[in-house]
Amino acid sequence: MEVLTSEYRRIMEIVADADGPVMAKDVARVLGRELTLGKVEPVRGQLRKLADRGRLTRTGAGRYLPR
User: Fold this and answer.
1) Among 49, 48, 67, which Cα is nearest to 57's?
2) What does the alpha-carbon distance between residue 49 and residue 26 come to, in Å, rounded to a whole number?
3) Are 55 and 67 in contact (CB under 8 A)?
4) What would the pLDDT profile of 53-64 be if each residue is shown by its tens digit?
5) Residue 34 to residue 66: CA distance in whole angstroms
6) Fewer CB within 10 A of the terminal residue: the chain, N end or C end?
7) Phi first, then psi: what are they for 19, rounded to 5°?
8) What are 31-49's pLDDT values in tens digits?
9) What is the pLDDT of the chain when averaged over all its residues?
């Protein structure tokens, strides 16, 4: 079983606690990051990895939901 780092676990919590699908900028905001491209893109990559590994569901609009 794959063990997640604390940051990935935090991202999973943010998505699970949201009222609906979230975008990378929503997660970045909760993480306290600036909403610049350079700060949001790494979060987008982390969300994509979590979805690719079956931990999140990605909608067609680039939004993420818990599995």
Assistant:
1) 67
2) 17
3) yes
4) 999 999 988 999
5) 24
6) N
7) -80, -10
8) 999 999 999 999 999 999 9
9) 95
